[in-house]
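User: Hi! I have a protein structure encoded as tokens and I'd like to know what sequence might fold into it. I'm fairly new to this, so please keep things simple.
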């Protein structure tokens, strides 16, 4: 089946559901006429229909019509939705993609049966600008069709990596929550510029472009170690900064920030067993 032949249904159409839908519509992978969604708030339903040019429907109709079902509710709303899906019976020929943080494959299969093909995806906010990082974890033995369809679907939002389920919590710390930590660092950089007299907007642009450019160099294949050596001239300005980074143990403290997010993700999966 060609990607353009699939029918896609969003269960939950909040912030992240909309980011994903927008990317799919812009990429023209699946025609709008084959995209359905359901959400709770009726007014927001009508607003989203107008904004996206797609159709809202009942959960029952969505489950019937969609080949691919994308779960985009919050983890706290998952049980209600999965119980309702189990009551309505979801055919095992359907493919379920969930972007919910923290919930293990076994949790979905507890409601939907252990043969239900599931893909856990952890996208991030940067998917909104086509520079997202999506981390994939499939239920055992995914079909080639499921893998290639999902790869095509999410590659329009950025990069994809596959990860075994035992590494999803730390992955969430790195790339799921990661943009939040980077936003904070960019803001901190911008504010120090402002403190020294640069206009905030100008300083913010300088900080953000510096992060973007540095990341691009690494994604082009340069190793961080080589770049660090290149930039840190002995007794130079960058080296002075590195000395302060070492004294403040910035690396290990920053790693603790990521590990705190991973720990919260682990707690989530304990809550939703
Ligand atoms: N935000 C991020 O950066 C991010 C990144 C990676 C993963 N995620 C994951 O993405 C998921 C969604 O996050 P979000 O930020 O998009 O949340 P959100 O904006 O609160 O959206 C949740 C959506 O679920 C709908 N919903 C709730 N209960 C429902 C039900 N019983 N039936 C149908 N729809 C229902 C809500 O509908 P109404 O609004 O109409 O009530 C809303 O459209 C979360 O599980 C989160 O872990 C988020």
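Assistant: Happy to help. Inverse folding works backwards from shape to sequence: for each of the 273 positions I chose a residue that suits the local structure. Here it is:
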């Amino acid at each position: 089946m060609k990607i353009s032949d699939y029918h896609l249904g969003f269960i939950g159409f909040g912030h992240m559901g909309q980011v994903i839908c927008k990317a799919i519509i812009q990429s023209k992978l699946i025609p709008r006429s084959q995209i359905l969604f359901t959400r709770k708030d009726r007014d927001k339903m009508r607003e989203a229909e107008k904004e996206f040019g797609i159709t809202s429907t009942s959960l029952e109709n969505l489950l019937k019509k969609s080949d691919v079902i994308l779960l985009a509710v919050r983890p706290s709303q998952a049980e209600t939705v999965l119980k309702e899906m189990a009551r309505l019976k979801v055919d095992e020929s359907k493919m379920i993609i969930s972007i919910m943080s923290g919930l293990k494959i076994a949790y979905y299969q507890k409601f939907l049966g252990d043969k239900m093909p599931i893909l856990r995806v952890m996208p991030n906010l940067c998917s909104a600008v086509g520079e997202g990082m999506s981390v994939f974890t499939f239920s055992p033995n995914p079909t080639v069709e499921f893998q290639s369809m999902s790869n095509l679907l999410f590659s329009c939002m950025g990069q994809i990596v596959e990860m075994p389920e035992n590494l999803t919590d730390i992955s969430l710390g790195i790339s799921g929550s990661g943009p939040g930590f980077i936003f904070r660092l960019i803001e901190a950089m911008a504010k120090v510029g402002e403190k020294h007299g640069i206009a905030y907007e100008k300083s913010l642009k300088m900080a953000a472009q510096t992060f973007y450019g540095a990341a691009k160099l690494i994604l082009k294949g340069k190793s961080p170690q080589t770049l660090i050596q290149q930039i840190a001239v002995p007794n130079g300005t960058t080296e002075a900064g590195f000395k302060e980074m070492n004294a403040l143990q910035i690396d290990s403290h920053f790693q603790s920030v990521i590990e705190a997010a991973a720990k919260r993700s682990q707690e989530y999966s304990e809550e939703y067993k």
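A useful reference point when you look it over: The chain has two domains: 3-170, 178-269. Feel free to ask if any position seems puzzling.
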